Amino acid sequence: MRIGLAGAGRIGARHAAALLDMPEVEALVVADADPARARELAARLDARTGDMVADRPVVGRLVADSVAELFAAGLDGLVVTAATDAHAGLVGRAVDAGIPVFCEKPLASDIDGTFQIVRDARSAGVPVQVGFQRRFDAGYVAAREAVTAGRLGRLHTVRSCSLDPAPPPAAYIPGSGGLFRDCVIHDLDSIRHVTGHEVTWVVAAGSDNGDEMFRECGDVDTGAALLGLDDGTLCTVAATRYNAAGYDVRLELFGSKDSLVAGLDERTPVSAVPEAGQDGAHVPAYGGFLERFAAAYDAELRAFIDMVAGRRGNPCPPEDALEAFYLAEACEISRREGRVVRVEEVRR
Question: Residues near 75 by Cβ (< 8 Å), separated by ≥ 6?
């Protein structure tokens, strides 16, 4: 099949390499707002793979110099990894053309735009898969299976965290949507997906004691939220841009029968105290999300290719992205206004 890639940045380059390792992908058509960057990525892919990928010939790594050229390339599917403000337009164009699309979150920069994509995709019958990669992480998959099977009994407490080792570049902050929409939204989707329940209310707060760039954008560098699920389970979420010990993403679930945690291994950047009795061996912490979720990124793209081929359904439809956006918006309103926000206030 012929797959298009819109966006030749860091995550686009990572997805491009993964796609070329899949037997079904015979050609990859790369495009970017900067055509020179698309050509550079295609050249790097050529240097990495030569004429063979996984012991099979590759039809080609092609470059489209414009969006129009990309959509005229006879695509079987499209992977969108462009800048956030380009997502809605690219996804909408793919839906109009009947092309199945995978899009990194968010689908759009606001609720109205996301709602429009949901409505258009549903009307056209075109699958749109959203890039919430934690759904494909082995620990999160096992956690969902444990909850579904009743292993934990009655779930009463959930704790989730997303702790970045360092802030993103200053140029990224203004268009990011803020900590809750950009970062915490992954926690919010994971809580819904793993527990199988809906969040009904939120209380959120944030602090901005870090770099001035956050205050200039009305954003915060550290945030926390308390969520109430429709079955009475209480959930807490913590996020920061300043966890210098390393990248730390975990989901902890506590029930009446058992408890478990996803994302806890020898590379989780936490230390037990006192440390007496430890062997002193040091294992480097994860440097960032691309390293921590490498297998999950591969798995979600594998799922997309299987969906395009008709072998499976959509594992992360746009309706789920809309629900996560509702929750992130509710958290942001709560942070700004200092009050409990019921999710119904923001739902369309």
Answer: 2, 3, 4, 29, 99
Strand partners, 28: 3, 61
68, 189: one domain: no
DSSP string spanning 285-331?
Answer: PP-SHHHHTHHHHHHHHHHHHHHHTTSS--SS-HHHHHHHHHHHHHH
Cα distances (angstroms) measured from residue 293 to each of 67, 247, 262: 29, 11, 12
Task: Count CB atoms within 10 A of the CB of residue 262.
Answer: 23
Residues whose CB falls within 8 Å of the CB of residue 323, separated by 6 or more in sequence, listed in order: 189, 192, 198
Query: Residue 29 is part of which domain span?
Result: 2-134+298-317
Answering whether pTM is above 0.90, one says yes
Q: What is the pLDDT of residues 288-346, one digit of tens each?
A: 999 999 999 999 999 999 999 999 999 999 999 999 999 999 999 999 999 999 999 99
**How many Å apart are CA 33 and CA 89, to the nearest integer?**
13
Separation CA 145–CA 149 (nearest Å): 6
